Each structure stands twice: as C-alpha cells, then as structure tokens.
Amino acid sequence: MKHSSAKEVEVRVKRTFLARKKPTNSLIDGQVKISIRFHQLKVRFKQLSVELNLFNNQSSDDRHIRCQRIGTRLHIFILIGSSIILALYSSLTQEIHHETILNPSETQYTTLAQVLGDCVVCPCSTFSVSHETFISIKPIYHHICSGDFVSSAWINFLLRSQFIDFVLYSDYHVNFGIHAED
After folding, report:
1. Overall pTM > 0.85
2. Do both 62 and 112 map to the same domain?
3. Residue 133 lies in a domain
4. What integer is the mean pLDDT of 178-182?
5. pLDDT at 50 > cutoff 70
6. Helix (H, G, I), strand (E, B) or coil at 77
7. Which pLDDT score is estimated for 2?
8. Distance separating alpha carbons of residues 46 and 40, to the nearest angstrom
C-alpha cells in the first residue's frame, strides 16, 4: 500500500505544484502579450519545421521518416531559393520599350538622341526634308567613258559578229588545244 500511496503523493504534489503556479502578467485586459504570442508562434514553427513531412507514407521506420523529412526540407529550400532567384531576376531586368515615330523632324531626333543616347535608331525610309532641296547630282562622264565604243549597242554588235570568233580562234593562249590538232 505504501507504493500506491507514494504514487498518489507524487501525483498530488505535481497537481498541487501546477495548481499553486503563480499567475503571470501575461493577461492584460483579457489579451495575451505580444511577446508571449511571438514565443508561442516561434515554438510552433520550430515544431512544425522539425516534424513536417510531405512524403508521409505511414511508415513506422525511423530511418524512412527521417529521410522523408530531409526530403521535405530540401524541397522547401529549393522552392524558396527558386522564388528568391526569380524575384531578383525579375526586379533586376530592364524593360525595353520600343516606340516608332514616323517621319521625325530633325529637332525631334536630336532631342531624343540627347535624352536616350545610343538607344535611338532611325530606320527611316523617307526623310522629312528631301535631299533635292539642298543637293542635286548630275554626273558628267569623261568622253572616253561616254563614247560609242563602250556603249551597249557596240558591245552587242561585237558579240554577234564574226570578229569575235576570229579573235578567239587566233588567241593561242586560249585555244592551244584546237591549234595543236590542226
């Protein structure tokens, strides 16, 4: 009986100890202090991070459970790391805005070139000021270059005549094989 009474005494002591616990100042007008809530949240987060298992397959083997928890932590770490990298990349990339101004004036172009620098490209096919207003080009050829012997009519005549056949046939450099057979 002493054994059972000893256990009862221990239980009673624990109960009285819990019952005699002094009230703390954790309650202020029915609300829990922020520091205590923060501490409780920290304890719950720590417990969740230790016990979280996304691969729970109802295995009772401690080694399998430990490997599953490590895999869970690894997956969460990779997910958070990828999210951070994606956020940094998207915040650091510059957005390029293309705008086309049709037929800009010279003042518009110089203003844009001063503001934007080398980013301004002018792929204009027409100009706002035509070049005929300030320059005109009229070529004057040398009398040999504009003579009859360089005209396309004379060249066509030579190609159709037998004169070319005579010149090509008498050229020993080109037709040595033909002359050697004769």
Report:
1. no
2. no
3. yes
4. 50
5. yes
6. helix
7. 43
8. 10
Q: How far is CA 181 from CA 36, 57, 82, 88, in A?
A: 117, 97, 84, 83
Question: What type of residue is 151?
Answer: S
6 CB contacts (<8 Å, ≥6 apart)? none
* CA 26, chain centre distance (Å): 52
Mean of pLDDT values over 44-61: 82
CA distance 53 to 42: 19
Residues 3 and 47 both lie in one domain: yes
The SS3 assignment for 64 reads helix
Length of the chain: 182
Q: How confident is the model at residue 12 (pLDDT cuts 50, 70, 90)?
A: very low
More confidently predicted of 157 and 85: 85
Chosen domain end from 34, 65, 93: 93
Q: Which residue type occupies 105?
A: S
